[in-house]
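Section 5: illustrative case.
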């Protein structure tokens, strides 16, 4: 492959204490958290709105707030839910506490909370590189219609989901385990008769009347078809409420791909779009409930469950979850079962947590990178603990800790991998987001 070499002058658009890359659930909370700690904070996001997979991917509900009937995540994440609730745009479904939300209100309230806290928002801005001085990031660069621009920062938070900034900075990544969880293009259906025995009990994520949220009857029908035609790929299906109107968010398509491989993702997304129409047609033909169903929206991209994981000071293991390892600085209380969607086929394995277990701060930082913190789904974890921590309430808790840690690093000039653990923990306790 031929290469070209380019040199150009890049304007430095702003100077900040903390720069957060990625405005999904973890990034938006990280930015609010750093700004509330008094730091000049910028957030860069490739899309024109906040919420990442939650809003752009129609991934509802928000899971992971409740463990064994008790709420275990508070702080900014819970504040977001409460603000949405006041607008009738969130429904906390007990006992498991999954939170169904209206994604348009989610985008609005996320934006309001960021602006109120003083975060400077750079949306439509694609992080494309960083400048390092002895493993310390001095600038990040991003691309937009204005060309390439740069921001300087004292501390950087990678909340891109895929660990893009860590990857660009040369942070070692865990060896891929070869069984990345699949991607799914979720979409919105209207015109479905949801008040029938087939659908009534499964459209809330917890299931009603003790029934599961995955629709068993439709699943068996699709499994039967897939046995005759292995080009039919699906998962679930899960039908989730969007609260306003009679629309349903549907999670049913599935593809196995490394979503950090542009060409492979492109091909997978084309196929997922074809699959979405094919599956809806199959439902229309078989079930009267879907006869008038119309696809009115689909995720801005395929929803990505898993890609890169940094090699942190500590990599979370299955033992950490089964033994409930006591860490010196826990940043998030796990709540969701270890929820592994099979890399191939329609399978899913759900393993409930047996007791209290936590994500440690050490899984968010890498040795030798003094001003870079990972937040969200790219932190350091093996397959099983990752399958629990990846849900939104947990990654928001991780985001809040990232903001607190970044602010502390600015205040103390200490490397992020060597922060005084007691001080970090007391700041986290003050905010009470790990309950
Ligand atoms: C199909 C599916 C179903 C799921 N179901 C549930 C569920 O029921 N409940 C639950 O709680 N969780 C669920 N999850 C998991 C959850 O949605 C994600 O794990 C969570 O959103 C991860 O948050 P994050 O902030 O780490 O990353 P993301 O949500 O991926 O956000 C990353 C953000 O960074 C931005 N970004 C990425 N790269 C760049 C770049 N280079 N420059 C600028 N911006 C960038 C993205 O646009 C995005 O806004 C599901 C996920 C999928 C895919």
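Designed sequence:
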């Amino acid at each position: 492959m031929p290469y070209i070499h380019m040199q150009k002058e890049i304007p430095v658009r702003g100077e900040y204490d903390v720069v957060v890359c990625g405005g999904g659930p973890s990034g938006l909370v990280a930015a609010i958290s750093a700004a509330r700690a008094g730091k000049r904070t910028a957030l860069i996001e490739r899309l024109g709105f906040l919420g990442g997979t939650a809003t752009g991917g129609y991934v509802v509900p928000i899971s992971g707030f409740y463990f064994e009937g008790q709420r275990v995540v508070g702080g900014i994440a819970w504040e977001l839910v409460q603000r949405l609730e006041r607008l009738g745009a969130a429904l906390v479904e007990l006992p498991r506490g999954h939170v169904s939300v209206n994604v348009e209100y989610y985008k609005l309230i996320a934006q309001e909370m960021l602006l109120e806290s003083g975060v400077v928002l750079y949306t439509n801005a694609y992080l494309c590189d960083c400048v390092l001085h002895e493993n310390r990031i001095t600038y990040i660069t991003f691309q937009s219609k204005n060309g390439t621009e740069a921001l300087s920062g004292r501390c950087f938070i990678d909340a891109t989901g895929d660990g893009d900034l860590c990857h660009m900075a040369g942070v070692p990544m865990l060896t891929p385990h070869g069984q990345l969880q699949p991607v799914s293009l979720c979409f919105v259906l209207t015109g479905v008769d949801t008040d029938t025995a087939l659908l009534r009990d499964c459209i809330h994520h917890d299931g009603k009347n003790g029934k599961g949220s995955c629709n068993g009857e439709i699943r068996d029908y699709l499994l039967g078809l897939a046995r005759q035609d292995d080009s039919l790929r699906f998962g679930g299906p899960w039908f989730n409420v969007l609260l306003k109107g009679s629309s349903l968010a549907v999670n049913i398509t599935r593809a196995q791909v490394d979503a950090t491989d542009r060409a492979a993702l492109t091909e997978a997304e084309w196929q997922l779009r074809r699959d979405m129409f094919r599956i809806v047609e199959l439902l229309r033909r078989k079930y009267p409930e879907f006869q008038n169903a119309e696809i009115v929206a689909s995720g801005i991209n395929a929803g990505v469950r898993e890609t890169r994981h940094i090699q942190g000071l500590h990599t979370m293991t299955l033992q950490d979850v089964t033994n409930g390892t006591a860490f010196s600085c826990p940043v998030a209380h796990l709540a969701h079962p270890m929820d592994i969607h099979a890399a191939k086929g329609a399978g899913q394995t759900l393993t409930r947590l047996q007791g209290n277990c936590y994500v440690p701060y050490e899984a968010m930082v890498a040795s030798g990178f003094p001003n870079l913190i990972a937040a969200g789904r790219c932190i350091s974890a093996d397959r099983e603990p990752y399958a629990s921590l990846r849900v939104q309430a947990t990654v928001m808790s991780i985001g809040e800790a990232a903001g607190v840690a970044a602010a502390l690093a600015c205040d103390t000039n200490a490397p992020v991998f060597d922060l005084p653990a007691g001080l970090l923990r007391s700041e986290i306790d003050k905010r009470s987001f790990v309950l």
